Amino acid sequence: MRSSPVAERGPGLVERLRAAGCVHAEEEAALLSEAASGVELERLVARRAAGEPLEHVVGWALFDGHRVAVRPGVFVPRRRTEPMITEAADSVREPTLVVDLCCGSGALGLALARRLAGAGFEVKLHAADLMDEAVECARENLGDLGEVHL
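User: That's the sequence. What structure does it adopt?
Assistant: Structure tokens below.
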């Protein structure tokens, strides 16, 4: 029987995560193993076991089918807000200005702009936040798809 990639990367990785209270230890172990190996993997596991959000540890969150960069100090976008993106996209009938206030990572505005652009709409995206960390993170995520303001 062939061992899993997680088992090959770190003995007891799943067990250590489970002991730290990680409910989805197998999935988290796979994501951590994908992100790093060796000493770096051990560092990431220690951060996660200490209670740091998995998304901050690996540096991204899955939102609306895309990886969105996140970092400590920036709110992790929640999958449960994705239906709001669907509802907003379905209501658009003309070229659109998208404004993402208190944007954090910029995930919501980015997801909406991507959906609208994919549907053929002309979209202007502006995102804003009060925190430097969030503005930097949103700029990384939006790239040339929109403007981010402090």
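The first strand starts at residue 60 and ends at 63.
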